[in-house]
Backbone:
């Protein structure tokens, strides 16, 4: 026996919500459930929604529990972050302090150096991509100086540049009251 739908909605209400929503997948789900309210079978509702009957059942369960908002796609939570607030504060502190070449063995922080530091301090293994995301979340950006050739001569660059004649010229003076 199929799971019954909530009794506080009907087909017209779901069609109205589907018309107003900006979320396409939610509208498709609402229309499939509206078909069930109108007496369609779950197989027919699955055809309306272009899915299987199992997925329609999942939609019914979500709709019964959370209402129309339950039919909106949500980002899955994923794994919790390995870095806690204390780790982030320590990471921000060491970035602000900068590396000491005698102590840390580097003259600037790279992601691999910070990964190594996190492992030595907290025994936390973290990937470069994840650490990069965490550092960006702390409002730090990778800054690098524009590379300069060691033999570049500013005088040679100025001599090489082409100078165009000025395009601005004085316009003719028009006498007041004269027509064109």
Residues:
């Amino acid at each position: 026996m199929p799971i019954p739908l909530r009794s506080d909605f009907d087909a017209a209400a779901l069609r109205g919500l589907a018309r107003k929503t900006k979320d396409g997948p939610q509208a498709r789900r609402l229309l499939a459930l509206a078909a069930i309210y109108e007496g369609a079978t779950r197989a027919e509702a699955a055809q309306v929604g272009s899915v299987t009957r199992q997925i329609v059942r999942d939609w019914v369960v979500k709709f019964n529990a959370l209402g129309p908002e339950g039919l909106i796609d949500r980002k899955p939570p994923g794994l919790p972050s390995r870095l806690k607030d204390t780790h982030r504060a320590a990471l921000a502190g060491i970035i602000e302090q900068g590396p000491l070449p005698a102590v840390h063995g580097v003259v600037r922080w790279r992601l691999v150096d910070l990964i190594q530091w996190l492992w030595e301090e907290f025994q936390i293994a973290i990937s470069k991509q994840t650490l990069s995301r965490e550092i960006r979340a702390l409002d730090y950006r990778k800054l690098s100086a524009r590379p300069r050739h060691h033999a570049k001569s500013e005088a040679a660059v100025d001599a090489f540049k082409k100078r165009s004649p000025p395009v601005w010229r004085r316009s003719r003076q028009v006498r007041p009251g004269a027509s064109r």
Q: What stands out?
A: Residues 24-37 form the longest helix (14 residues). The mean pLDDT is 89. The chain has nine helices and no strands.
